[in-house]
Every structure is written in C-alpha cells, then in structure tokens.
Amino acid sequence: MTKKEYIKGRGAQENKANKFLQFSYEMRDDFLEFCRIEGEEAANNKTKYIPAFPKTIVNKVTSPDVRMQFSMNPYQGCEHGCIYCYARNTHEYWGYSAGLDFERKILVKKDAPKLLEKKLRGKIWTARTIVLSGNTDCYQPAEKKFGITRACLEIFLKYRHPVGIITKNALILKDLDILRELAKDTLIGVHVSVTTLSEETRRILEPRTASIKRRLETIKILADNNIPVNAMLAPIIPGINSHEIMNLAKAVSDRGALSFGFTVVRLNGAIGHIFSDWIRKTLPDRADKVLHQIEACHNGTLNDSRYGIRSRGEGKIAQQIHDMMALAKRTYFKDRVFPKLNTDLYPIHKQGQLRLF
Asked: What is the DSSP-derived secondary structure letter of residue 24?
C-alpha cells in the first residue's frame, strides 16, 4: 500500500488531524514502504464498534435554519462514508478524526431506548417530533448488529409519540411492521436521501449506502404502505449531481414521495480538506472545476456559516439550482402535501398504559 492508493469502500482517504488535539498521527512514506516489504498492513480498514454511555439521548436543535426541534442519534460516526457529510466534524469532539475515523470508529449507544423512555416519561415533556438521524444515519450497517433504532421505535409506538427518520439505507424496511403501526395514527415521517441516479457516482460519493435502485424501491414500498416519505435530494454538488435535479425529482415522485427538500453543498470545518483530498484522487480531471463552483456558491470559499444562507448558497450557480428545484416542484409535486405529525395521542399514553404487542 502506498500513500496514493485509493481505499476502496471508504469515502475519506485519510485521517485529518483533530483540531482539538495537541498531537497528530501521520503515516510516513518510509513506514508505508516498510509495511509493503514486510507484507504487513499499515492500517486496519475494518470497522470498530465502541460503546458510548451518554447521560441523555434527546438533543434540542437550536440552529434557526434547521427544520427540526429535537433529534437523537443511536450511533456517532457513520459507516456509510458519505464524503460531504457535515456530521464528520462532530467526531472530533469524541477525540477522533473527521476523516477515516468517522467511518471506521462507530460509537454505539446501547442505552438509547432506556434514555428515550425516561425522556418521554418526564413530567415536563410535551409531544414534539423527535428526529432519528439528525446527525448520523440510524440505519447504518451497525443497526443490523445492535438493533437500537428498532428498540427506540418500539418506545415511540408505546407512547404514541411522533418521530421522524432520516436515512439512505434500505435497512429501514426491516422495521416496516412498526412503521405501519405508527403511520396509522400519523406518528411517522420518513426522509429518504437520494443524491444521484448514477450508481457509479453513488459508489464513490456514498460508498457503503444502499444502491440507488434499492433506495428508490424503499421509497415505493414505504409509500405503498401509507408511510409518508419526503425525499432529500441533498446535497446538490455543482459539477457532480447538479445536472440530475429534474431526473431526481421525477424518480422520487414516480415512487410516491410526497415532497422533497435540498441543500447546496457546503464543506465546513475539516470537511473542506477531506473533500478536496477525495476529489483529487477520485475525479482528478474535474476536481478544480467542482471546487471552484462550490466556492462560487459561498462567496469564494468552500463554506459559509451564516444562518439561512449556508445551506442555500448565493450567486448564479446557486440561483440556477434553486430555479431548477422550483421547476421540479411545480412539475412533479403539484398538490402533494407531507402531513403534519400527530401530537394529540401522547398525553393519553404518557404513563405507558398501551404496550406494543
């Protein structure tokens, strides 16, 4: 293995130094060459699951331009490896890198269902939608092993409390039985992320996510079971998927999505370096073009942190994206409405009289 070799099955191609740590770990070329000669692995590419023990699990979202009030994340870090993911930066707070560590060191919160139930039984808590995966995907591969998301959904059903889910993994279908029960009382809304219709682009952009075909099938199955679906066509990356907007909107509309949302990519914190390194290794012929177009959406930089603007972008390229999205909405989503979730049943079941059979 040499420094320039592409790490298959991963998004990030390196571990960016953690800005909070005094020291950083670096693989030098002489060490890599030694490993090659000796036939040894310079680094283990396997995913490691690390137990985490938070005191609380429900987080209040204070950002004024994020359309959710509360979120919870059964896992920190995400094996999906989406190269653009804003959540990468949060891994630095745990003492890890936003690069490969984010994909290979997954923190597992086994106590999440118990902490959630404690929150819902709290005297001052009133029903407001709690979104699973406000940060990292609750249906990433770790869910196959630990089943924490399913256990949390059982708690939401027990208390008839509204819940939202954001995911790009067809693994959500294993919980179709619970989702159907929640949907009967308008207690569930699912947001499925579809970033591209190109499987080749998906493999390098989001290496361990469900295939595009499987993701579109997931939207259809959920819709056919009367589970409301909003498609997240996000992020839109100029020069990579910005030409797909109309086709993306039509594809999710044809499968039964009731609405869609989008963002213009921004590469905040360590992600700017990680993304730039990735694109120069995966798409070197268009790297400069893509990076310059992203900068054109954010006043000459890869990131804009201003609320209300940071995820919308500015300038001609961003305006073109917004115009295409408006056209797609008029063309494919006329008269469709994503329902408001029901908060009326929770007070009746707050003491846990109703059990999941």
From this structure: -
254-312 residue pLDDT tens? 999 999 999 999 999 999 999 999 999 999 999 999 999 999 999 999 999 999 999 99
Cβ proximity of 19 and 92 under 8 Å = yes
Give the number of other CB atoms < 10 A from CB of residue 213: 12
Locate the domains of the chain by residue range.
Answer: 43-336
Q: How far apart are CA 56 and CA 39, in angstroms?
A: 45
Amino acid letter at 245?
I
- pTM given for the model: 0.91
How far is 233 from 266, CA to CA, in rounded Å? 14
Q: Sheet holding 163-167: strands in order across?
A: 59-60, 70-72, 130-132, 163-167, 188-193, 229-236, 259-264
- The 10 Å Cβ neighbour count of residue 196 is 19
Nearest Cα neighbor of 69 from 58, 57, 54, 55 is 58
**Token digits for 164?**
């939202």
Question: What is the CATH code of the structural domain delimited by 43-336?
Answer: 3.20.20.70
The half-sphere exposure of 309 on its side-chain side, counting CA atoms within 13 A, is: 9
Distance CA 134, CA 175 (A): 19
Contact between 217 and 171 under an 8 Å Cβ cutoff? The reply is no
